[in-house]
Amino acid sequence: MLFEDRIFYHIYPLGLCGAPERNDSAMPFQEGADPFFAVGEEWVEHIKELGCNAVYIGPLFESTSHGYDTRDYRQVDRRLGNNAGFRQWVDACHEREIKVVVDGVFNHTGREFPAFKNLQEQKWDSWGKDWYCQVNFDGTSPLGDPFWYESWRGYPELPRLNVWNPQVTDELMSVVCFWIENFDIDGIRLDCADVLDFEFMRRLRKETERLKPDFWLMGEVIHGDYSRWVAPGMLHSVTNYELHKGIYSAHNSHNYFEMAHTLRRLFGEYGLCRDAVLYNFVDNHDVDRIIDKLAVPEDLFPVYMFLFTIQGIPSIYYGSEFGIHGQKVNGSDAPLRPKLVLSEMEETDLTRWIRTLAQIRSSRKELIYGEYVELLLTNRQYVYGRRFEGDACIVALNNDDSEASVDINLPISGSSICDLMSGQVLPAESGRVHMVLQGHEGRIYQVK
């Protein structure tokens, strides 16, 4: 399946680059200047060195504030640079065999988008009145407009587009074509996919496959049956928020049954989306950093081992590989999206752990494509295998403070298992092996 062998690095560029909170319209576009993109190529090299081979970066469209209030779908936000600079950045990624996926913000626009400005100016006579949902001139908006309109989750700064209007849909398809043809992007992450029209997504799949057969579509979906979105003719993947919650909750409550149950519910014999390849993460630009969600910071090591060895596509949110902190304050996402200067970041044991996990995952097909086999499950210890074409790896996790001894049956025939991090070999007798796990530890073995 597309992108199944990818490891993502996720960048929120306005935060990473320390862009101004508001986009001053007086700031000139830089199209006539030299190519420039504020996320420097040193980050591309870092992504490669960390072991990632895909980057999800966004939002990028010209916007007014946080990036999801679009002004212009065909311009890179002037706070980040210009179109020519971003094209060079994509080329730098492709030179290192890194796929590039950008945000597609198609459920709503900002109030400075041309269609909304036309609605404000021309009202009943505007062409823009048919671009938005439930425009009604018998009321007023929360921001004082002499009309009412539907917005995303009640935020009046984000008027909802009417994707049932063929003019709107045609324009959005044209926008996607523009980004593929001008920037050679490899995929789009659909913002708010859980409220987008399904017919819109089906058309998007057809259009993008025509333009670029291996183009990848991933949707932001928080709740619901993921198989409604990840299906033939629809999206290739969605954000796995269900597993995200299970990961930190299971560690904090010493209850590995929660993680295992989530896997069964999603991918088991009667799972909701048994054959889907979901986008897995432990933090992102909308939720607190994983280090601040864990009761015991040492659990970062088994957490990331689980992320890299389970079904789906793992993703690292920029800065979390260095163990940085970030929690929402009074509802603000700003602490989750800090400015970082790569040369000032110090490598830690966690950075090296993640790099090693990426290398191991990329080198072992069973960790990418393999069948999941549960081998042992208690509240505080969890051992599972991944097997593929006669090979198998075993992952062992311990969220206890104390050392734990476990005995498991091998998922395939073998005489021993080899620790892929330390090189230690453990013998197997009659297909059974004994292992000792230190507190808050994760180990990964290859069956020999």
From TrEMBL:
Keywords: Glycosidase, Hydrolase. It comes from the Bacteria. Residues 25-361 form the Glycosyl hydrolase family 13 catalytic domain. The keyword Nucleus does not apply. GO terms for molecular function: hydrolase activity, acting on glycosyl bonds. It holds the Pfam family Alpha-amylase. GO terms for biological process: carbohydrate metabolic process. InterPro entries: GH, GH13_cat_dom, Glyco_hydro_b, Malt_amylase-like_C, O16G_dom_2. Belongs to the glycosyl hydrolase 13 family. This is Glycosidase. It comes from Frisingicoccus caecimuris.
